[in-house]
Amino acid sequence: MATRVRPSNKRCAVIGGSGFLGRHLVEKLLDRGYSVSVFDIRQSYELSGVTFHQGDLCDKQALLPAMKDVSLVFHCASPAPASDDRRLFERVNIQGTRTVIQACIEAGVQKLVLTSSASVVFEGTDIKNGREDLPYAKKPIDYYTETKIEQEKLVLEACDKEKGFLTVAIRPHGIFGPRDPQLVPILVDTARRGKMKFIIGDGTNLVDFTFVENVVYGHILAAERLRSDSPICGKPYHITNDEPVRFWDFMSEVLVGLGYAAPRYHLPYALVYGLALLLWLLALILRPLVSFKPTFTPMRVALAGTHHYYSCDRAKQDLGYKPVVSLKDGIARTVQSYPHLRQGA
Ligand SMILES: NC(=O)C1=CN([C@@H]2O[C@H](COP(=O)(O)OP(=O)(O)OC[C@H]3O[C@@H](n4cnc5c(N)ncnc54)[C@H](OP(=O)(O)O)[C@@H]3O)[C@@H](O)[C@H]2O)C=CC1
Ligand SMILES: CC(C)CCC[C@@H](C)[C@H]1CC[C@H]2C3=C(CC[C@]12C)[C@@]1(C)CCC(=O)C[C@@H]1CC3
């Protein structure tokens, strides 16, 4: 009878490892002596110590080779939140995550770490220092978040100490850093089109923005602390910079760092939200005839005009988490990493 190779605890797989967070995670895992197999729908780089497997995570047969002899899997793949494609979110984030769980169990993987999102509890109204025991949003802000909720439930419910399959979910919020494809590029694009002049509301709302290396650190701590005798099995953890900041101060610092003017004029929140809703409806109705994507979607307006920051006390206590890069340094490193997005470049 063929003996089964015992998976090395320094061999792991990163699903979504070609993406923004995934690639930072892969780089840190290599630094810490892991060998990594990446599974992603695209291959965006080459790196020694990394084996790439290209495929759709909804396809179990494609996933299995990436999990061979692997004891630990990170799942940080998702379609981009900006997409409005409900069926795609359902297929990848819900059905695909079921497939990932089945593949893990079949391949003998012992630990699964999911990248969820703090937004699973956000309904577009203020959250101040929200803890993990807040209920899931009954009215999530968009399809993306709706499917992130189902995805998190699936992964946490799959945790089974008896069977030796352990799971945990990391809930980051507003990830930023070098190579981020959405926050800074969208901000700069909005500024270049002259639309970044206005502050929505009074500008005092506090929000978490989390430097990508802190998010990576939270994932690795969770993976390394995930044992059948640890309190973290089957639980979600907020990972933030633990420095809530005024949304508009953060945006202004990034904009000014890149040579653009900071927004100055205030507009009432209700007015902008109403207009964004109207535009969104119009875009929906006209979709068969013309396709346009409004910059200020109701989701973005809600994120820009309300308080939403989260306590990471549970991560501090159970994981020994503490941010490794301050917000100030994170912003400086991010701004430096985008020379091509500077004003006049
Ligand atoms: N960015 C943020 O602020 C936050 C992100 N998150 C979560 O963090 C995770 C990583 O996000 P981020 O790095 O920003 O996103 P990215 O889009 O940069 O990375 C996701 C990766 O997954 C890939 N992917 C998408 N669909 C599939 C599929 N069917 N099969 C295999 N791979 C697929 C993407 O490919 P392609 O690009 O071709 O689609 C991409 O390479 C996600 O789960 C997201 O929900 C949570 C909170 C905040
Ligand atoms: C046009 C402007 C008013 C604002 C531009 C910045 C936004 C693109 C970002 C500000 C907060 C970000 C955020 C996310 C995406 C990018 C922002 C809207 C997420 C929705 C990404 C996915 C998540 O899971 C939650 C994030 C919350 C914060």
UniProtKB/TrEMBL annotation:
Family, as annotated: Belongs to the 3-beta-HSD family.
Subcellular location: Endoplasmic reticulum membrane; Lipid droplet
Pathway: Steroid biosynthesis; zymosterol biosynthesis; zymosterol from lanosterol: step 4/6
Coiled coil region boundaries: none
UniProt keyword terms in alphabetical order: Acetylation, Cholesterol biosynthesis, Cholesterol metabolism, Endoplasmic reticulum, Lipid biosynthesis, Lipid droplet, Lipid metabolism, Membrane, NAD, Oxidoreductase, Steroid biosynthesis, Steroid metabolism, Sterol biosynthesis, Sterol metabolism, Transmembrane, Transmembrane helix
Gene: nsdhl
GO CC, alphabetical: endoplasmic reticulum membrane; lipid droplet
Membrane topology, as annotated: Single-pass membrane protein
Protein name from the UniProt record: Sterol-4-alpha-carboxylate 3-dehydrogenase, decarboxylating
Transmembrane segments: 270-290
GO molecular function, one term: 3-beta-hydroxysteroid dehydrogenase [NAD(P)+]/C4-decarboxylase activity
Superkingdom as given in the UniProt entry: Eukaryota
Subunit structure: Homodimer.
InterPro entries, per database record: 3Beta_OHSteriod_DH/Estase (IPR002225), Lipid_A_modif_metabolic_enz (IPR050177), NAD(P)-bd_dom_sf (IPR036291)
Lineage of origin: Eukaryota, Metazoa, Chordata, Craniata, Vertebrata
All copies of domain 3-beta hydroxysteroid dehydrogenase/isomerase, residue ranges: 13-264
Entry EC number(s): 1.1.1.170
GO biological process: cholesterol biosynthetic process
Catalysed reaction equations from the record: 4alpha-carboxyzymosterol + NAD(+) = zymosterone + CO2 + NADH; 4alpha-carboxy-5alpha-cholest-8-ene-3beta-ol + NAD(+) = 5alpha-cholest-8-en-3-one + CO2 + NADH; a 3beta-hydroxysteroid-4alpha-carboxylate + NADP(+) = a 3-oxosteroid + CO2 + NADPH; a 3beta-hydroxysteroid-4alpha-carboxylate + NAD(+) = a 3-oxosteroid + CO2 + NADH
Location, primary (coarse class): endoplasmic reticulum
